[in-house]
Write a structure and sequence with these properties.
single chain, 323 residues, alpha/beta, Nucleotidyltransferase, domain 5, 2 domains, Glucokinase
């Protein structure tokens, strides 16, 4: 039986996933519950406790030495709190304290979900072997994280690298974050679809108006659908180039549902990068699709915990959760 295990939680607006992960990134046990996102905060927490309880029911739990959490944000790792936009019952919610109590005192590391994805891609995925990387999730929103000097760089609150809210259009549409012209306001899946619909694109007989449907239309040559993805790619390129200019990353890894559009997104993105990443020290910047898929949140949360608590001598508590 592996002797160096951490528990990992991946918390989002639709599901709360949990796993036991070893120090080679292997998932040994997993479970999940739907997120009761419209309920009060304690009801959401009970779903988290149910996930932890199922993980704790097996013999491997005796070897768990820490818990890693990747959560939808905003998060505040310094305070141990979370305020996910899509979980209204959690505002400044003391998640670290509650998870520590539920696991009878195990150390807990909290990062945003974009940072968790970055940790996973750097450890096991497309950013492996790169000392300076930006990893991004482009989906319902746009998030990200940074690897600098070979190490994960979550920042004081766990939100560093949140590229979705870099402004790339000074006079652009208002963003729910309070700014204007953010990358997310242009490149997220819902905004790709909104822009295509506003410009006259119409869905097929199935009525699907998702970004995936826009991507399918673009792949078939629809000029309006293609233009919407080109605009998203331009916004992503501007944000990536700005990040590269600031901190000299050499790879940008892109995952999430929008990245599944493939060349509909990546081809115009690479073209746009040639315009935006113009300085000599960022011209060699490469863009790659993410490799970790739906396991990125769990593996990344585990990686963050292993990074934060590297000493195998941390006491291992053998009590079951809530037992």
């Amino acid at each position: 039986m592996p002797t160096d295990l951490v528990a990992a939680l991946d918390i989002g607006g639709t599901k709360i996933a949990g796993a036991l992960v070893d120090d080679r990134g292997r998932i040994l046990l997993r479970t999940q519950r739907p997120t009761p996102a419209r309920e009060d905060g304690d009801t959401v927490m009970r779903a988290v406790e149910d996930v932890l309880g199922e993980l704790a029911a097996g013999e491997p739990w005796a070897q768990v030495r820490a818990v890693g959490i990747g959560s939808a944000g905003p998060v505040d790792a310094s305070a141990g709190t979370v305020s996910p936009v899509n979980v209204p019952g959690w505002r400044g919610y003391p998640l670290v304290e509650r998870v520590r109590a539920a696991t009878h005192g195990l150390p807990v590391e909290l990062v945003g979900d974009g940072v968790a994805m970055t940790a996973a891609e750097h450890w096991q995925g497309a950013a492996r072997g790169h000392d300076n990387a930006l990893c991004m999730v482009v989906s319902t929103g746009v998030g990200g994280g940074l690897v600098l000097g070979g190490s994960l760089h979550p920042g004081p609150t766990g939100n560093a690298g949140h590229i979705g809210h870099i402004c790339v259009d000074l006079d652009g549409d208002p963003c729910p974050c309070g700014a204007r012209g953010c990358v997310e306001r242009i490149a997220s899946g819902p905004n790709i679809a909104r822009r295509a619909l506003d410009a006259g694109w119409r869905p097929g007989p199935d009525g699907d108006t998702s970004a995936a449907a826009v991507a399918m239309a673009a792949r078939a040559g629809d000029p309006v659908a293609t233009a919407s993805f080109d605009r998203a790619a331009q916004a992503l390129a501007a944000g990536i180039a700005a990040t590269a200019t600031l901190v000299e990353i050499d790879i940008a890894v892109i995952g999430g549902g929008v990245a599944m559009a493939g060349d509909v997104l990546f081809a115009p993105l690479r073209r746009a990068l040639r315009d935006y990443a113009a300085l000599s020290f960022v011209r060699q910047l490469t863009v790659a699709p993410a490799l970790m898929g739906t396991d990125a949140g769990l593996v990344g949360a585990a990686a963050a915990a292993l990074r934060a608590f590297p000493d195998p001598a941390v006491p291992r508590l053998r009590s079951a959760v809530n037992g």
